[in-house]
Design goal:
Length: 97
Amino acid sequence: METQFYILLSLKTAKGFVDYGQYFFGNDRQAAEGLFAQLQGGADVKVNCLLHIDLMETVNDLPVKIKTICCTLDELGVNCKLIAREVFRIKNLEEMP
């Protein structure tokens, strides 16, 4: 089975963290890690952090968390724009002959 990489968005609720979005990168570890390194936020995840962004991979069809950052709502907006632009670029390059 091929390893797949994706970014998972989650937010804190009274009952814990809830996932609300995913961006898939396919099997390109370098592209996924390179993009994740550009995201705004801090690797120091604190108790009062309400928004998480996780770099995930699938191993034997099971999700594995590679890295996590905590971000503000403003940082999340910037990050989503960056992620969408990069996913668009990657997917269009894949389709070029």
